[in-house]
TrEMBL record:
Keywords, alphabetical: Lipid degradation, Lipid metabolism
UniProt protein name: AB hydrolase-1 domain-containing protein
Matching Pfam families: Abhydrolase_1
UniProt xrefs under PANTHER family: LYSOSOMAL ACID LIPASE-RELATED
Amino acid sequence: MTTLQFHSQSRFESDIRFASSTSCSFRPRRNFTLPRRFRPRPPSLHSHSSTSLRPLPRAFSNDPAVTEKPSICTADELHYVPLPNSDWRLALWRYHPPPQAPPRNHPLLLLSGLGTNAIGYDLSPESSFARYMSGQGFDTWILEFRGAGLSVQASNLKELKQSADAVSEQIEAIAKSVANEVSPQKQPTGVSGYLSDSEFYFLREDSIGIGTAWDEAKLVAELTEIFMRLSERLSGFLSESQSRLISTKLLDQISKLLEDSQLSERFEEVRIKLANILEKQQNSVIASQIRDLSQRLVNIIEGGQRSVSPQFIDIQERLSSTIEDFQKQLDLIVKYDWDFDHYLEEDVPAAMEYIRAQTKPKDGKLLAIGHSMGGILLYAMLSRCGREPRLKAVVTMASALDYRCSKPLKVLLPLADPAQALNVPAVPFGTLLAAAYPLASRPPYVLGWLNDLISAEDMMHPELLEKLVLNNFCTIPTKLIMQLTSAFGDKGLCNRSGKLSYRDHLNKSNVPVLAIAGDQDLICPPEAVGETAKLFPENLVTYKLFGEPHGPHYAHYDLVGGRLAMEQVYPCIVQFLSQYDLTSLQKLL
C-alpha cells in the first residue's frame, strides 16, 4: 500500500512524498490519538460475522403496514425516499450499529457505481463493507439510484411492494438461470432497471421483421400517436433536434419499404408535409393534419399491397413491424430518461435529506463514501456546493473526473453520438454481463479478460465474484453514458450542457477527502485518481494506493469486496472518518 500526501502548489512535479507501509496516515499532520472510548475496534472476521448474524428488524419503508422486505435485501431495514415531481421511490438499505459498537456523531451514506445496486456493498456476511462499517458504530445507509436495484416507480405502497418483490425475484432468477445454463434474458422482466424480453430484443436487433396482420385502423391510430408524440417532443423528453432525428429515422425506414417502386414519389410528398408539421408546436389543427397524413400514408401502402408485383409482398406486415419497433423505442426513451446530473441534483440530495431527518446529526452533516461513479458524484457535489455541501468528510474509491487514461472505458465513446443514443436509449448492461459470464468463468475462458476488469487474480472467492456479476448490475440509460463520456475530454467530466467542468471548483472545497486507488484498476487507473486528488486544497486531501509490486493487487472492485479489503482498506477508511466524526469536545478529551 502506498500513501501519497501533497504539500504545496509545486507538488505536481517534484514535491510529492511517498511512504510505503501497512499503516495509514492522514492530513492534517499532527499528533492525534483517539480517546479510548472512541477508537475503532480492530477488524475481525469473527466479530464481523457475529454482527451480521444478529436478529434483523423486518422493516419495509416507514409504513408499519408493510412488514416484509424483498428477499434480496439483506439490510436491517429498507426505506423508500420519494423523488419530488416523480413517481420514483429510491431504495435506502439501512444497517444499524450493534450495541457494543463505539458511538458516532454522523450517519454514513454509501454510493454505488454506474449501473449497480446495493448488493456490491453487502455480498455476504463475511464480505460486507456495509456490515463492517455499521459494526464500527456508523449508522450506514446505501442509496440505490433510480433504475437500480429495489428503487421502483410506484404511486402507492401496494405497487411499491409488488414492484420491489418482482425486482428481487428477477435478480435471483438471473443467477439461477446462469447456474442452470439458461439464457438470462428469458427471465420475467420489465420492472425498475431491468428490460423486458421485448425491450431486450429490440435493443439487440435493429431490423425490420414480419409483424402482425394488416389492420388499417390500428396502423392509422399508431402512426398518428407516434407523430403526435414527436410533435409534442415526447412531453419534454426530447429536444427539438432529437425529435427531428428520431422522426427522420422512422420516415427513412418507411421509405426503404417503398424503395424502387411507383409509390416512392407519393410517399415523398407525404413525408415532406409530415416533416414540416413536426417542426411546429402542437395544436388541434396540427393534430388533425397528422391524422390525415397518417391515413394517406397507410392508404399508399395499402394500394401497393394490391399490386401483383413481388416487391410489394409483405409491405403491410413489415410496416406494422416497423411501427411496433418504433413505439418500443419511444417508450424506452421515456423509461430511461435520466443522466448524471439527475443523480447529482435530485437522487443524492433527496437521500441525504431523508437520512438527516431520520438520524438528526447535531451539525446536520453526513459522512459519505462513493465507489466508482458514486465517488464521482461526491466530487461533483464538492465542486458545485463549494464550502456548504452538508458533508463532514468524504472517501472515494476508484473514482476520478478525468478518464482519458482509461482504455476499457473508451468503448463508451461511440454512444456519445446523439443519433446513436436515440437508436439505443438504454444499454442492458446487467443482462449482457450475465449472458457473458459463463464465457468468462469457464474453460476455455473466451471472455476471461472481463474478470480482470472487476477483480485481480485470487482477490475474490469465485462464488462471490459470480454473485457480484449476476446480481449487482442493471440497465444503464444512454443519456447517462453520454454525459459520462465527457470525462474523456480536455475539460474532464462536465454538466449536461457542457459549460461547467466539475474539476474547476474543487480547490474551493473545505471538506476532507480520502481518495483511494487500486494498483491494477484498469477502469479507473491510479494516475486518474491521483490527478483528481491534486485538485483539492493540499491540507484536506489524502491519496492512498493499495497494492504491492509482487502482490497482492487491487482491481476496480477489490477495494470494496476483495479478500484483503477488510484487513487493509476498511481500517484505513474507519480511521479517516473517525478523525472527522469527532465533536470539538471529544477532540479535547
